[in-house]
């Protein structure tokens, strides 16, 4: 919850500060994959999830996801197996190009074809819980 609070305060303060602290894991990953426009397009969002693909076969297994989630230090790592199950929209026990469009639509709150920092935080918090 602390990270979400810090980000919201930075965005609302009008100081022009970047939405994420460079030391923040979520911020680093968002900036790495979102690109210069600070928005996730479908292809960037897919690449974000594929960074968990350790054997580079184009899909993320449950084991790869669990391991990667913990290794990245992302919030709620003890719940990574549940997160994987929620994200596996096709129910084939891998995350891949069949799942990514569904997941993208879940995070694209306003349906404009891109995911903003706020949409990522809002929906990330809803799916993955507090980020204490």
UniProtKB/TrEMBL annotation:
Keywords attached to this entry: Calcium, Signal
Top-rank taxon, per record: Eukaryota
MF-aspect GO terms: calcium ion binding
Family matches, as InterPro entries: EF-hand-dom_pair, EF_Hand_1_Ca_BS, EF_hand_dom
The EF-hand domain, residue ranges: 40-75, 95-130
Signal sequence, start to end: 1-17
Protein name: EF-hand domain-containing protein
Organism classification: Eukaryota, Metazoa, Spiralia, Lophotrochozoa, Mollusca
């Amino acid at each position: 919850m602390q990270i979400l609070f810090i980000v919201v305060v930075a965005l609302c303060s009008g100081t022009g500060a970047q939405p994420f602290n460079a030391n923040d894991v979520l911020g680093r990953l968002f900036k790495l994959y979102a690109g210069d426009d600070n928005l996730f397009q479908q292809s960037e969002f897919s690449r974000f999830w594929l960074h968990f693909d350790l054997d580079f076969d184009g899909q993320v297994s449950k084991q790869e996801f669990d391991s990667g989630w913990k290794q990245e230090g992302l919030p709620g790592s003890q719940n990574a197996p549940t997160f994987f199950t929620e994200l596996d929209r096709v129910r084939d026990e891998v995350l891949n190009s069949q799942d990514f469009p569904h997941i993208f639509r879940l995070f694209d709150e306003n349906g404009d074809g891109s995911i903003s920092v706020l949409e990522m935080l809002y929906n990330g918090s809803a799916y993955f819980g507090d980020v204490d």
